[in-house]
Amino acid sequence: MIALGDLAVIVGTSLIVAVVISAIAVMVLHLLRRASILIRLGVVVLAAVASIVGGTVAIARAMYISSHDFVVLAWVIGVAAVASLGVAAVLGMGLVRTSRTLRVAARAVGDGQVVPAERQDSSEFSALSRELADVSRRLAESREEVRMLDESRRELVAWISHDLRTPLAAMQAMAEALEDGIAADPERYYRQLRSQTDTLSHMVDDLFELSKIQSGALRLELGPLSMYDLVSDAVADLAPLAATRSVSLNESQDGDLTVWGDARELSRVIHNLLVNAIEHSPAGSAIHVSVREGAHSSVVLSVVDEGGGIPEEYLPKVFDAGWRGSAARSPRSGVVSGGAGLGLAIVHGIVTAHDGDVSVRNTVGGCRFDVRLPRFQPRMAGS
Predict the structure, then answer these.
(1) CA-CA distance, 249 to 238, in Å (whole number)?
(2) What pLDDT digit, counting tens, does each position of 299-328 carry?
């Protein structure tokens, strides 16, 4: 049993020596703050060993331990110190090796490569490796998305340039013929000029609408809307166009379902879907428009045509701005689109702004577009 006074001397002496050596170690570590982690780890181990040695020597002198016992104790401490330094060296080299591996992985991520997650010497470094792998994957996906958007933008600019040049060239030719007085039927030229002007106006409207959607500037005036009225009005407006193509429009609705949305924008959605179906439907075919109650308090609008299917690899591109479709879905002879491949992109943007979703799939001999919108709930009126 150690006497209380001796215990106080031992603890006090050890504490003083440890504080002094720790302070020296902190200053050394500060000076070596840019050095290798292996060297800094060696300083920490040496500080710990020096604290033990210093405290032991001071206590041995104070307690008058014999020279023989002191030599034995010194040898024990020395062997332990060497073993500790060896373990620290092994640990430090492992940390250096791991840091070098992670540095190489970080450089690869910076170069645009996708790096795999590798198991490291510690859970922390393994977590960092997984995080680097996840970051590299997300960066690769972002780069691919940017590449596709840039490609889509270039295609859109090319299509718009073509579609603008065509009516402008026709208008210029007709204006010159009228100006030179060589137009055989001036009234017909005036009608064609008006038609081409309407085409350009619709194209500019589509571009403006798409720009608002893509910039997040689309403002919705939400309220309860009758899908029966929206669909019936759109079918009535486009029936003459369908008749000129010898295409019939058929509608069916499960009662008067009400949605929560913007009347003008949702009318545009239905109009664009029907115009797209009319453009791609052969003479003598039918377009079916239906509205039904969907799952999870939703209303589903479906437009089914008989204009031929879309290759499966092109289905994800249907709602991209500027996408015109494959040969099977190109407009039929005599059908001139007034847009620049923007109609379905506008549909997607408007439906997304309504917290809905739109999808497309092939059916027998044609395509089916499904628009899912939130059904009106009384609580929405107060939100």
Answers:
(1) 9
(2) 999 999 998 888 888 888 888 876 666 544
